[in-house]
Design goal:
Strand order of the largest sheet of chain A: 3-2-1-6-4-7-5
Largest interface: A-B, 55 and 55 residues
Radius of gyration of chain A: 29 Å
Number of helices of chain A: 10
Oligomer: homodimer
Order of helices and strands of chain A: EHEHHEHEEHEHEHEHHH
Helix content of chain A: 40-55%
Distance between the termini of chain A: 63 Å
Largest sheet of chain A: 7 strands, parallel
Amino acid sequence: MTPSPSIILINPQLGENIGMVARAMLNCGLTDLRIVNPRDGWPSDRANAASSGAFTSGVTPTLYTSTADATKDLHFTLATTARPRGMIKDVYTANGAMEQAHQKITEKQNVGILFGAERTGLENEDIALANAIITIPLNSEFWSLNLAQAVLLVSYEFHTQGDTTPSHQIHTGKTDIANSDTLNLFTTRMIDTLSSHDFFKSEEHRPTMERSLTNLFTRHEWTDQEIKTLHGIISAFIKK
Amino acid sequence: MTPSPSIILINPQLGENIGMVARAMLNCGLTDLRIVNPRDGWPSDRANAASSGAFTSGVTPTLYTSTADATKDLHFTLATTARPRGMIKDVYTANGAMEQAHQKITEKQNVGILFGAERTGLENEDIALANAIITIPLNSEFWSLNLAQAVLLVSYEFHTQGDTTPSHQIHTGKTDIANSDTLNLFTTRMIDTLSSHDFFKSEEHRPTMERSLTNLFTRHEWTDQEIKTLHGIISAFIKK
């Protein structure tokens, strides 16, 4: 697996949330989880239960006693906050921050992202240790995310920026996209069949109607299998 | 608020999950929640508790008894599935799908997104009713998201594509970015002060050292307030 950012939870409260964080991380291919002073202790049965197996499928949790200790091998540390803290600091969207993260990782730097406790978020002392801030752009009137959701969005931005899935594709299974010839054979057959069933009442309007009928099908994409089905529909309709 | 996609939950099981879906929607400015045959009934105290107030802050839930009924006013319906279902169908990433959604909404079309039950996902019958599929690109070896997380990622893609927050900015509070003159006055003072404290042992190397000292500061961005602090540091050091 290619290197990815470390997720660093500072004073997380609930074991469940740590487990859900691990699940969200692994959904996006992140594996290094650092936990600083979890309130309810570690290891945690509740964390394991909520992780959906993330801890046995790749996420490695490590316990730390201070933020400085948990970040000492990092070259680029980001702090997540929902609101400005009156500090002079670079602020990135999750998207902008993960663009930076990819670049730093290409330069062999270690990147980590700090997340504060559920109720209070990060302390200013922790934010001061970070090189920059991430503020996820959300509805400004209802912006409070739970911990795992915040981790998910940042991890997702990292994952999708490295992902090569085309934004649009067509699932055709074992069939292929029909070419012009296949499509034209169908529209021609349809028009001929309609003609022999007295569809065209006026010879004057016939060219316009033929054009509309052709266009009805050419403006969409069809597979060979779908054209076969369309032929089958005509055959069924005209059967005595 | 600008129009946004409807979120349609088909046979959701747990009230908690419906509440967390509402919260995730409103985090991203989505408000129209349609619920088809929730297993545990509706209204739901558990949904309200898990929503963090989303139902009283903007999300309006509506109950339906069939997918066809819940989607009948829509022009463009998307079905979320983690894996291909052997149907000939357009497949979008969450990003690609929400790009389409913005375009359709600009054309005054109603857009909705179907999400299946927690354990089983969408039935093929429901997917057949949709115009296209969304498959969120995730870690192919650990792709199972919980319901609210799936809704969050799709809603987030819709929200961020309409958002104008610059991907990078600098929070400077009441101060401004220092201009060249301010920065040069500082580096000049620093070099002069170092000179009077016998920092430059060799006149031969002095030009190179001066260049390095200047560069130490010019390659970063500073605010007026930070330059004042740096001046203060020098003043403190040289005080008898």
